[in-house]
Amino acid sequence: MSKFLNEIRDVIRTKRYSLRTEKSYIYWVKCFILFNDKRHPEQMGTAEIDRFLTHLAVVRNVSAATQDLALCAVIFMYRFVIKRDIIGLSFSYAKKPKNIPSVLSPPEAGAIISHLSNPYQLIACILYGSGLRLNEALRLRVKDIDFSNNTIFVFRGKGNKDRVTILPCGLIGSISKQIEKSKLVHDKDLAEGYGLTSVPASLVRKYKNAMKDFSWQYLFPSTTKCQHPVDGYVCRHHVHDSAFSKHLRRALLKTNIAKKVSAHTFRHSFATTLLQNGSDIRTVQTLLGHSDIRTTQIYTHVCGSQFAGTISPLDRLTQSI
């Protein structure tokens, strides 16, 4: 990595951005530099940024979210690394389409889950049964499962917010077995002189060998050990999200479900099913971790006449005739 890109990385880490954001920002800054014939960003400005964004939108036909991410990366570089504000851009942040989420009925969700093997089947059950995002489920540690209160603690979810959600009673046995499997992996690591789990940058220096405690280990540990990208120690991370996505695609092909299904579809289905069964929208908002109830209200469009047990006045009239 060049000296300039290393400088960008250092600023990103100083601001405590996530590793995923760091990788994305550096990727798009590299794309911006290569697109402009490897000129240094200090020699460029508004015109070059406009050309780059036009290329992404017209030639590469990227999505609105990708276009916004590229713009964020370039603006971050100029504002915090080069120390210059960009004024007069022709582009603003792209307006994302407001899509009604695709949801699964309970039989459809069950059909897909039945074609998954563990640990991916258990991951899907947690997504559907507790409303977690995929990365939230993968980052669950043993200490986050509370069997006594039937709850799951979500540490630093989207927006760096903690929350507590429900642990389905039907998953207690499966999760207990998964914890036993994680314990076997951890004991083997300890016997080989390892045993440290993957934690955010610099945290291992603060807690040291406490990171070898079983309670800190991931519920879904990776099959291989790796080197921590920032601190450099050998650790065991969690299952990668791409692995779950591959198994989900294969499971979907084995069903007759003609819907677009991703890991997030299970979260949408969790919220919709709760509302259809009469749960209060504020409760659903809390379980999902939404800051704004308007985000939760999108599921009312999916529920239709079944929202919170609501019956159309016409149906009530028909019943009385």
Number of strands: 5
CATH domain topology of the largest domain? hpI Integrase, Chain A
Percent range of helical residues: 40-55%
Q: What about the largest sheet?
A: 3 strands, antiparallel
Could you say which structural class the secondary elements and strand pairing correspond to? Answer: mainly alpha
Describe this structure in words.
The chain contains 15 helices and 5 strands. Helix 3 (46-59) packs antiparallel against helix 4. With 321 residues, it is mostly helical. The protein has 2 domains: 3-81, DNA polymerase, domain 1, CATH 1.10.150; 99-321, Orthogonal Bundle (hpI Integrase, Chain A), CATH 1.10.443.10. The strands form 2 sheets. It has a 3-stranded antiparallel sheet with strand order 1-2-3.
List keywords for this structure.
single chain; 321 residues; mainly alpha; DNA polymerase, domain 1; 2 domains; three-stranded antiparallel sheet; two-stranded antiparallel ribbon; 7% strand; globular
